[in-house]
Amino acid sequence: MHLKTSVLLLSHSSFSYLHVEPTPFHSQFMKPLAHLKEIILDEVISKRITNLLELRNDHMEMEKLILSAHGGDLYGFDLLAVATLNRSMCLLKGFCYFLISENFIAAASLVRLQLDNCLRFFGGWLVTDPHDFALQILEGKQVNNLNDHDGKKMTDGYLIEKFSKKEGPRFLTLYTHTSGYVHPSNKYMFNAMRYEIKEGKVHLKITDKDTFVSNELYLEVIDSFETVIKKILVYMYGWAHTKENPELSKNQTGKRDTI
């Protein structure tokens, strides 16, 4: 993935950043949950959560790769990259916490937030100047009010359309489904009920713990969240590689969607 590498903000000697190792997840969150004796997660799901948490290390390594590229110089798009990685790690931690708490409806909504995170970073590949794009976001401008290199407003719908054409229809489906957990829909209504058609009964619940969610749904939402995170990391590597090799962007004039 190749982006324009101009607009140097600071040389390596002019800035510093705080590097903090991820907090051990279980030591911080399992203790408050210890009294919830009925928390029972399938062994496969528990393993998947553990694997997800290991992706935090990938975030930290990608941060180092980006900020050390090109002699450690700092560019405008670096700021958006760091912010995206930071948000991704925060969402990852919250996602795993909700899963362990058996709060599927909250976890599912974070998939959509992570996808939004990915789409906004992807926007850098659609504009004429990705560094200016990042700085405009820093100034408080909404991405959906900014134009891509074709003069089109980068609304959520437009971004997911462009992203799905490039990365596959699965992401458009994921965007549509997870929107149902962010906005009023039948998704969260079904989370509170279960039908027994033969018996003509409906079971209702009002609790902060899942009652009607199957292990299959847990695995599906974990797959989706992991897929989005890995796609974010792919684009992060694309930027790091281009930053380290600025001649690539010069050779890719008019080919902004190439990797």
Provide a descriptive summary of the structure in words.
The protein is mostly helical and 259 residues long. Helix content is 59%, strand content 5%. The chain has a two-stranded antiparallel ribbon. A two-stranded antiparallel ribbon has the order 3-4. Helix 2 runs antiparallel to helix 3. The protein starts with 7 loop residues before the first strand and ends in an 8-residue tail after the last helix.
List keywords for this structure.
259 residues; mainly alpha; two-stranded antiparallel ribbon; two-stranded antiparallel sheet; 10 helices; 4 strands; disordered C terminus
Please outline the major beta sheet: 2 strands, antiparallel
Overall geometry comes to globular
Order of SSEs: EHHEHHHHHHEEHH
Query: What structural class should be given to the helix and strand makeup?
Result: mainly alpha
Layout of strands and helices, then pairs:
Blueprint: E1 8-10, H1 25-33, H2 43-68, E2 74-75, H3 76-100, H4 104-122, H5 130-138, H6 156-167, H7 170-182, H8 186-190, E3 193-196, E4 201-204, H9 215-244, H10 247-251
Antiparallel strand pairs: 1-2, 3-4
Question: Summarize this, please?
Answer:
The protein is mostly helical and 259 residues long. The chain is built from 10 helices and 4 strands, in the order E-H-H-E-H-H-H-H-H-H-E-E-H-H. It has helices spanning 25-33, 43-68, 76-100, 104-122, 130-138, 156-167, 170-182, 186-190, 215-244, 247-251, and strands at residues 8-10, 74-75, 193-196, 201-204.
